[in-house]
Write a structure and sequence with these properties.
Elements (H helix, E strand, L loop, with lengths): L1 E6 L7 H11 L3 E5 L10 H6 L2 E6 L7 E6 L4 E5 L12 E6 L2 E7 L9 H21 L5 E6 L23 H12 L3 E2 H5 L8 E2 L5 H4 L2 E2 L2 E5 L7 E6 L15 E5 L12
Parallel strand pairs: 1-2, 7-8
Antiparallel strand pairs: 1-14, 2-4, 3-4, 5-6, 6-7, 8-12, 9-12, 10-11, 13-14
Length: about 270
């Protein structure tokens, strides 16, 4: 089973890129972020014609998340994070697909920091950590996939010294990510590629993609029930080089169909 995450940076403007990638990569499940479209203007028909059922949480001009499933319709289980009824940002969507609970998220950027936007980011992150803990208590296979807007370590950013005060790399944010991992979540890409510089985002400016001046900010966190099924993980970096593409590249994991069985101990 192949699960992907892709910040499309405007689903309507990038639709040809998205459809081309879906056809070539053939993921089973896709989490999309930054749709930048109200519900009524989402390209539902085009996605369905590509063979995917979908659930959406749109928002005019900003944010927006979706979960796509090949030849199936995701069963929605949650829309939005608990903990703040006044938060109207479209940043979290959750659904069941083929026995796995999929959480699709677009964590706030938080810049400039310090400031109100950074405060909102930390509060949202705290709510997310609490919800993630509640998901682990269910003892079911869960993946939390999306744009976390966090570079967890120096290995995840091309020039760490230039990012120390950025909201994506400040100590408070990295500490929050580590707090999440300590609950029992597995960072899929870093687990399989512990020492490799892997990026998922390259800015449009300063020739960043050609220089490979990137960031790893798109992540897959797996619950204890799902982590043993992890086979492969990677980034479709070439998509970032396509015409009129997003500044992110699709990121993906592959899971075994069934949990790996542990050999029984001899009595």
């Amino acid at each position: 089973m192949k699960i992907a995450s892709y910040n499309v940076n405007g689903v309507n403007g990038r639709l040809p890129v998205l459809l081309r990638w879906l056809k070539e990569a053939e993921p089973d499940v896709v989490c999309l972020q930054e749709l930048k479209s109200p519900e009524e203007k989402l390209p539902v028909a085009a996605i369905e014609d590509a063979g995917y059922g979908a659930i959406w949480q749109g928002q005019k001009s900003w944010n927006g998340v979706a979960i796509l499933a090949k030849d199936a319709v995701p069963v929605e289980t949650r829309r939005g994070l608990p903990g703040d009824p006044d938060d109207t940002h479209s940043r979290y969507l959750e659904a069941a697909v083929n026995g796995i609970l999929i959480g699709c998220l677009y964590l706030p950027n938080g810049n400039p920091a310090p400031g109100p936007k950074f405060d909102y980011k930390l509060k949202w992150f705290d709510r997310f950590i609490k919800h993630a803990k509640s998901l682990l208590k269910q003892k079911v296979p869960v993946v939390l996939a999306g744009d976390y807007n966090v570079m967890p370590t120096d290995l995840d950013v091309y020039k760490p010294e230039s990012w120390r005060d950025d909201a994506l790399f400040r100590p408070e944010v990295r500490e929050a990510f580590q707090k999440l991992l300590k609950q029992g979540w597995t960072d899929a890409i870093r687990t399989l590629h512990p020492d490799e510089r892997i990026y998922t985002f390259w800015d449009y400016f300063r020739n960043s993609f050609a220089r490979n001046a990137g960031l790893r900010i798109d992540h897959f966190l797996l619950s204890e029930e799902l982590a043993p099924r992890l086979l492969r993980a990677g980034v479709d970096k070439e998509v970032r080089g396509w015409e009129k593409t997003s500044d992110h590249a699709p990121t993906w994991i592959e899971l075994a169909g069934k949990p790996k069985r542990k050999r029984a101990a001899k009595e």
